[in-house]
Amino acid sequence: MSTKSVPFDLPGFKRPRELRFDYNAIADLENALGLTPQQIFQTRAGLFTIRGLLWAGLKHEQPNLTIDAVGGMIQAYLSEFDGELEVLSDFIGQAIKASGLFKVEEPDGEEGEAKGDSGNAGEGAEAESKPEAPSVHQPASAS
C-alpha cells in the first residue's frame, strides 16, 4: 500500500510541495518532539507541534530539511503573506487522513471519513489549530 500525499502550495513555502505522513515520518516526528503519536494527536496543536508535523510531512521530499527551516517557512507564510494557522492545520489533517496510518473518528464518536468541507470555520468563529485527532491503528497480527 503506497502512502498518499496531499498537495501543499502556500506562499512562504518556496514551491509547491506534497505533505505525506508515512511510518518513517511519524517515527521521526515522535523522536524529534519526544512525544508519542497519542500525545501529539490528543492535545491542541501548538506552534511546536504544527512546526514538527509540517517538518515530518515534508521531509520525504527533502531529507535534509530541518525543523528550524520549516519554522522559517511558517514565519514567512504567517507574517509576509498573512497566512493562518488554521489553514496549515487543515492541510496537516488531510495528509494524516490520507496516510491510512490512523483511524479518524468523527466528532460524534463514529469512525469514518472526515467531512469534505475544509477551511470553512465560519465567520467570527474562534480559529483553533488542532489537526483531527486520529487514533493509532493496532498492527495486524502476523499470519
Structure in a nutshell:
The protein has helices at 23-33, 37-41, 47-58, 67-80, 85-99, and strands at 6-8, 17-19, 102-104, 134-136.
Strand order of the largest sheet: 1-2
Number of strand elements: 4
Query: How many H/I helices?
Result: 5
The portion of residues assigned to helices is 25-40%
Rg: 15 Å
Total domains: 1
Quick one: overall form? globular
Our measurement of the CA-to-CA distance between the termini, rounded to an integer number of angstroms, reads 18 Å
Portion of residues in beta strands equals 5-15%
- Flag low-confidence runs: 110-143
Q: What structural class do helix, strand and pairing data support? A: mainly alpha
Q: How is the main sheet built? A: 2 strands, antiparallel
Q: How much is the average pLDDT?
A: 76
Written as H for each helix and E for each strand, in order along the chain, the element string is EEHHHHHEE
Report on this model:
This protein is mainly alpha-helical and 143 residues long. It is built from five helices and four strands; from the N terminus they run E-E-H-H-H-H-H-E-E. The protein has one domain. It is 40% helix and 8% strand. Strands 1-2 form a two-stranded antiparallel ribbon. It has a two-stranded antiparallel sheet with strand order 3-4. The longest helix is centred in the middle third of the chain and has 15 residues. It starts with 5 loop residues before the first strand and ends in a 7-residue tail after the last strand. The C terminus is likely disordered.
